[in-house]
Amino acid sequence: MTDSYTRLVNAGLGKTLSKRLGLPRPAVLRRYRPGDPLTVGPVLVLSDAASKPEADAVAQALLRWEVDVRREPTDDARWGAVVLVLTEAARPTDVSDAVLAVGSVLRRVAPNGRVVTVSRALTDDDPPELAATRGGVEGFLRSLAKELRAGATGNGIVLTDGAAADSTSALATLRFFLSARSAFVDGQLLPVGPADAGADESGTATDRPLAGKVAVVTGAARGIGVDIAKTLARDGATVVCVDVPAAGEGLTRTANAVGGTALQLDVTADDAGTRILEHARSRHGGVDIVVHNAGILRDKLLANMKPQQWDAVIAVNLASQLRINAQLLEAGVEGLRIVSLASIAGIAGNRGQTNYGFSKAGVIGHTRATAPLVARLGGTANAVAPGFIETEMTRTIPTVTRELGRRASSLQQGGLPVDVAEAIVFLVSPAAAGVNGEVLRVCGQSWLGR
């Protein structure tokens, strides 16, 4: 549910008054429902001259998804999305015509529309002009995302290691960014590599890409964990719901709701990973996905912080993930998809949260280090960093602070737990095998951090 201010200014008298008074009017975001169209209108695919072949390949993929694709701007369209392919641009001047063509249609991008760039990552061997061009795309996309209105978002796919624009993982990422699944993802550039072994492009266009997979979710008894479990189950996974024995009632409720099983377990236990694996194997035949969602807060200024407040947060939020991952790797689990919950507090920091910031920055660090270890077994490790999300916890924040948190993003509102869940489901999908060691922010392009 959106916050009361957003509801007020989008209906009836509140909508009229907000327009007359010039008040901010956050859009009601379009969120995913099975069977809905991918976009809210036709998709315009643009490129610089050198990137035209890759733009053609992207357009062909969109046509396979039964999307209305156009290659030239027209005045009669209300654009559902604009895809700008700049993969082969070599000099800053190469992108000018394509970028200005995007500008010419921005006023006709529909509410909840999308702008997606496709470019290539910088490498150490790039000559200065090429490095300037590739680096410039990042600044362009992040700035453009802040200009979009009415729930429209801008995100970028950054191809690494020679990946093609129409590779399976690049197309899976494009589909995610175009869809309502990415409602609260804005101003983000996600690196995508060519590691598509075992990926199936048909999975980019199905409502149940996780059919036959077994997923473990820690902290599943309440909050974001419930939505993660429900979204994984919606997309076909069998879910093992994990939480502490004290949360047994909520844990059972979640497991019953998703048709999965409940495992009462403290993730800080020395053998937590082994017990998770034993449960998944004995009840479901194995494990394919692990989502590290369990986390706690013990906020206090560092000058006032007690050892137990610091130690508890590190034990639950960080050390438990390291231990579980190590035990799963030692067991040789193949094809494992791991997603860990980080936070923008681990990127930008937050007053009174030195322990939490350390733990969440640590999550980002271990995700990047774990990625190549899991890749040797055909898996991936990524992190999701939520911004302000509407949960029971954020509802306890003082009103003024809560309102500032909600409005401090390009989308001028908080996200919902399902927004975090949708990002996780994308990252664990078979088609996203080329995304590894990355951090995807789900923050509405929060003003904190990058």
The CATH homologous superfamily of the largest domain is named NAD(P)-binding Rossmann-like Domain
Distance between the termini: 27 Å
User: Total number of β-strand segments?
Assistant: 13
CATH topology of the largest domain: Rossmann fold
Rg calculated over all Cα atoms: 22 Å
The percent range for strand residues is 15-25%
Question: What's the architecture of the largest domain in CATH terms?
Answer: 3-Layer(aba) Sandwich
Helices and strands, in N-to-C order?
HHEHEEHEHEHEEHEHEHEHEHHEHHE
Helix content estimate? 25-40%
Gross morphology: globular
What is the multimeric organization of the chains shown? single chain
Strand numbers in spatial order across the main sheet: 9-8-7-10-11-12-13
Domain unit count? 3
The first-level CATH class of the largest domain is given as Alpha Beta
Task: Tell me about the largest β-sheet.
Answer: 7 strands, parallel
> Helix segment count?
14
Helix/strand-derived class?
Answer: alpha/beta
Low-confidence stretches: none
Average pLDDT reading: 93
Draw up the topology in text.
Layout lengths: L3 H5 L3 H10 L21 E5 L4 H13 L4 E2 L8 E7 L10 H10 L3 E12 L7 H18 L7 E7 L8 H11 L10 E4 L21 E5 L5 H11 L3 E6 L4 H11 L2 E4 L7 H13 L4 E4 L14 H24 L6 E5 L3 H4 L5 H22 L4 E7 L12 H9 L9 H12 L10 E4 L8
Parallel strand pairs: 1-2, 1-3, 3-4, 4-5, 5-6, 7-8, 7-10, 8-9, 10-11, 11-12, 12-13
Helix pairs in contact: 7-8, 7-14, 9-10, 10-12
What report would you give on this structure?
The longest helix has 24 residues, at 307-330. The protein contains 14 helices and 13 strands. The chain has 450 residues and is an alpha/beta fold. The radius of gyration is 22 Å and the shape is globular. The protein folds into 3 domains: 1-28, no CATH class; 31-192, Rossmann fold; 208-442, NAD(P)-binding Rossmann-like Domain (Rossmann fold, 3-Layer(aba) Sandwich). The strands form 2 sheets. It has a 7-stranded parallel beta sheet, sandwiched between helices. Helix 9 (272-284) packs across helix 10.
